[in-house]
Design brief:
Elements: E1 6-9, H1 15-31, E2 49-54, E3 57-61, E4 65-69, H2 84-93, E5 102-108, E6 114-117, E7 129-135, E8 137-142, E9 152-156, E10 161-164, E11 173-179, E12 191-197
Antiparallel strand pairs: 1-10, 2-5, 3-4, 5-12, 6-11, 7-10, 7-12, 8-9, 8-11
The protein binds succinic acid and fe (ii) ion (FE2).
Length: 202
């Protein structure tokens, strides 16, 4: 059983809301193109490509490691504003937490995955992490606060929202794999995950 504070809200966004969000993300991607994040120390690239919107964006490279910064690592430009639809979702599910500052956009091509990890690069660990899925289905895995704790799988579909709050805020989680061509939303095989986070203490 996942930790308390873990909520899966299947179908939170209907098809029309998903299409609106996809259109807003197309605008984000035009000014903030996907970049290839690289693991600290090993220098290995992630299989997921990323960009961000909002005041701060999550980036990772060999020299600087995991961190938030106000600018795109390749273009040097500030991140585009967070679409209003995302702040509305946050308000609906984040239990009164201060406004989100970062929206990490993860692009999973077929074959991409995300190893088990904890989101802990934020100063404010009391606000939940809110994630939105668009496009192909994916097997999400969530465990406990320790890496060896038992895990369970959850199928995430386009329009689903996840909330990792409370005890689940520091739970290990990741994506085992996506199921290519299970959705036609994006017009190509792949999956977008948006992760909204409060970074600094309010
Ligand atoms: C993440 O944990 O950063 C991404 C989770 C997801 O893609 O659903
Ligand atoms: Fe995460």
């Amino acid at each position: 059983m996942a930790l308390s504070g873990f909520r899966h809200l299947p179908g939170f966004l209907d098809r029309q809301a998903q299409m609106r969000l996809k259109a807003a993300l197309d605008d984000v991607l035009e000014v903030a193109p996907l970049f290839v994040p690289v693991m600290p120390r090993s220098g290995r690239p992630f299989s997921v490509r990323m960009t961000n919107c909002g005041d701060l964006g999550w980036v990772s490279d060999k020299a600087g490691g995991y961190r938030y910064q106000p600018t795109h690592p390749d273009t040097g430009a500030t991140w585009p504003a967070m679409p209003r639809q995302l702040t509305t979702i946050w308000k609906a599910v984040a239990d009164g937490a201060p406004a989100p500052e970062a929206c990490l956009v993860n692009w999973y091509a077929p074959g991409a995955k995300m190893g088990l990890h904890v989101d802990r690069d934020e100063e404010d660990l009391s606000a939940p992490v809110v994630s939105v899925s668009l496009g192909d289905d994916a097997w999400f895995r969530i465990g406990g606060r320790k890496r060896g704790d038992p895990t369970e799988k959850v199928l995430l579909r386009s329009g689903d929202v996840l909330v990792l709050g409370g005890d689940a805020r520091l739970a290990f989680h990741g994506i085992d794999r996506i199921l290519p061509r299970t959705s036609d939303l994006l017009g190509e095989a792949g999956r977008i995950n948006l992760t909204l986070r409060r970074v600094r203490l309010a």
